[in-house]
Write a sequence for this structure.
């Protein structure tokens, strides 16, 4: 069965903040890997992002789902070089009553809901929040050795036994 992993974007895979904020509250922001966006934002990938995506790709089809617009989400993922790893991008336009929905994705892809796993730092953004794997949010200024993304695989191994 085709397995799908739905990943939240902000504070799950990356953090983007205005320079005006960072210069005052996170003075060491430039010591974080990242890049400028739209001239006044700094975007930084969460630690271990590349390794996580490479590993996840081997077992899942990847979807990004953000509460921000699809267009902006695509720009962010492109900026950190992982856009091509996703086969579909969902954004604000795809919310149902203001929420992300696993059921909607299942309907769109014509697959059963239980072949979809979602990860979000705010599971409550999903209608099916009790089925979402919660990850701690990550912000510029937090640990550069954060391993939360890689730790997700411990949950996913349990999940994939359910699938097989
Ligand atoms: Mg988030």
């Amino acid at each position: 069965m085709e397995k799908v992993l739905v990943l939240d974007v902000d504070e799950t895979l990356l953090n983007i903040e205005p320079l005006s904020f960072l210069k005052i509250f996170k003075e060491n922001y430039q010591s974080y890997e990242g890049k400028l966006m739209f001239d006044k934002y700094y975007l930084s990938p969460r630690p271990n992002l590349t390794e996580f995506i490479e590993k996840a790709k081997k077992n899942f089809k990847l979807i990004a789902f953000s509460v921000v617009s699809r267009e902006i989400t695509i720009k962010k993922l492109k900026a950190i070089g992982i856009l091509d790893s996703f086969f579909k991008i969902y954004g604000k336009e795809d919310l149902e009553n203001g929420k992300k929905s696993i059921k909607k994705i299942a309907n769109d892809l014509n697959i059963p809901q239980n072949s979809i796993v979602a990860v979000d730092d705010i599971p409550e953004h999903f209608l099916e929040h009790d089925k979402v794997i919660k990850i701690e949010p990550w912000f510029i200024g937090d640990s550069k050795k954060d391993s939360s993304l890689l730790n997700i695989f411990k949950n996913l191994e349990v999940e994939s036994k359910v699938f097989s």
